[in-house]
Structure formats: C-alpha cells, structure tokens
C-alpha cells in the first residue's frame, strides 16, 4: 500500500476521513462525516445526503490534463484522423467478416488480417477506379 502517494483532501472544517482504496476502480475514497459536513455552507452544492463520500481516481492529475487537452486544435485533428481509422476497422469487422478470427497463433492471425486488409484495399481501389467521370463545363468568356 502506498499511503504517501494518496492526496490529503481538506474540507472547510478539516481533512476528510480516509475511507480506503478500491483496487477494482483504482481510486481512493474519502468520507465527510455528518459532524464535518453538517455545518458547512457549501453542503447544498455538494450533496443532499447526510454525509459526503468522495472518490478520487489514482491517476486524477493525468485525467485532468487529458480534459484540458480536449479543447485544443491538435486534439480535434487527432480525433478526425482516428475517425478515419476506426471507420476502416468497422468495415473490416462488419462487411469483410473479421469480427472473429478463425485461426489461433499470432502468425496465422497476422496472415488472416493482412488478407482481409488486402481485400478491403482492392474493394476501395475498384470503387476509386470506377467513379463516373465528372463533366467538364465549358468556360464562358
């Protein structure tokens, strides 16, 4: 157990009681008792219960940093690129039938995936080559 790394949460009337660590969801639990939370002026904003249970994830600083990056233009660009890749994987899964692999062992799985990706690329190439020609409008002068 790493008690030194857990944050100490201060309430208006002192530190909250440490309730324990949840290994399932990787978080620390803090409990504000009725004695501490009862006289707090911010209690209506926190909770309507008799006491407050606060759960903090162990990687909360990293999660907060990720929340800050959401509003950047680089994040929007990465999301657009991810959307294209996810669409290709969805096509592999739904239309080409790679939802479940037929063979085991990494060598055979890699081979099956490469064959499916080649089939997908051939389908895309056929669609690209058989596009109807766009009519060229004469320039007016």
Supply the key terms:
two-stranded antiparallel ribbon; 2 domains; 48% helix; three-stranded antiparallel sheet; alpha+beta; single chain; 141 residues
What features would you describe in this structure?
There is one protein chain. A hairpin with a 2-residue loop joins strand 1 and strand 2 (14-15). The longest helix has 24 residues, at 73-96. The radius of gyration is 28 Å and the shape is elongated. It has 2 domains: 10-65, no CATH class; 71-129, no CATH class. By secondary structure, it is of the alpha+beta class. 48% of the residues lie in helices and 16% in strands. It has helices at residues 34-38, 43-46, 60-69, 73-96, 106-129; strands at 10-11, 14-15, 17-22, 27-32, 52-57.
Beta-strand proportion: 15-25%
Radius of gyration: 28 Å
Query: Please, what is the average pLDDT?
Result: 81
**Helix count from the secondary structure assignment:** 5
Helix content: 40-55%
What summary fits the major beta sheet?
Answer: 3 strands, antiparallel
Strand/helix succession: EEEEHHEHHH
Global shape: elongated
Strand order of the largest sheet: 3-4-5
Topology, number of strands: 5
Q: In angstroms, what separates the terminal alpha carbons?
A: 81 Å
Report the structural category. alpha+beta
- Poorly predicted regions are none
Number of domains: 2
Quick take:
This protein is an alpha+beta fold.
């Amino acid at each position: 157990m790493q008690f030194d790394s857990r944050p100490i949460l201060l309430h208006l009337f002192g530190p909250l009681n440490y309730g324990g660590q949840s290994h399932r969801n990787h978080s620390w639990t803090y409990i504000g008792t009725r004695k501490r939370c009862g006289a707090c002026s911010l209690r209506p904003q926190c909770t309507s219960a008799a006491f407050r249970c606060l759960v903090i994830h162990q990687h909360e600083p990293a999660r907060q940093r990720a929340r800050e990056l959401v509003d950047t233009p680089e994040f929007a660009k990465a999301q657009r690129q991810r959307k294209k890749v996810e669409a290709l994987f969805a096509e592999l899964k739904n239309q080409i039938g790679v939802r479940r692999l037929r063979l085991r062992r990494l060598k055979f799985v890699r081979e099956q995936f490469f064959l499916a990706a080649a089939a997908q690329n051939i389908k895309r190439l056929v669609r690209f080559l058989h596009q109807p020609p766009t009519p060229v409008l004469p320039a007016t002068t």
